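Hi everyone, sorry if this is the wrong subforum. Our group has a chain we'd like a structural model of before ordering constructs, and none of us has done structure prediction before. Sequence below.
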Amino acid sequence: MTGDVVPEPIGSIGEYHERLLEPLYRDLAPHDAEGVLRNEWVNARGAIARFDRMAIEIRVLDVQETPVMDVAYAELIAEVLKLLCAEQWLDRGGMNRWRTDERGKLLTRAARQGEGAGSGSKQYLGAFGWRSSGMELKGLWEHLIETVSARGSLTADTGRWLEHYLRHGTLATRIGKAVGLMPTRAKLMGVYEQLCESLADSRPFAPPATVPK
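Answer:
Right subforum, don't worry. Here is the predicted structure as tokens:
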């Protein structure tokens, strides 16, 4: 079952069950006599609670070309979430006032335009410690990377892989530039052979001269 990819604000475990899971379970019950679907994962959203291990599972992230990039992004996101939970820039009440539909529109823009998408209102940027407006998503992430790095929260390896993103953009951007606007089958095969090599060699995808050592 799916709802809006961006979940609505929920304040407690009890509220999560009352507002989200129990209505889903009731609706599914006539079609699920054995209760197979009576599980947390039935609420398929961009981020879901997994109370069996007391975690939030972020499901909207794409797999990258190599695990080192997956780990780097995961480390960065975890550190940013810690700052949000600590109310570093905005209190919980302020975050709960974010409109889910507006965040959904931002996600759609990001999917279409990548790091070049506008990052939203001044109020949204303020939730991450940025006090002006008109910033692209890449600029917002650069700000967050600098903020987290200044706290000593990232490993040296993660810092290098994130610098690769800041220099060359998302994986989708890099693939798009590599294949061009009118890619041939041969061009596509060549680029994806390079991606296979990136996976095998644990290095980010980019022209050889620009890959960090």
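For your construct planning: The chain is about 55% helix and 5% strand. Confidence is low (pLDDT under 50) at residues 208-213.
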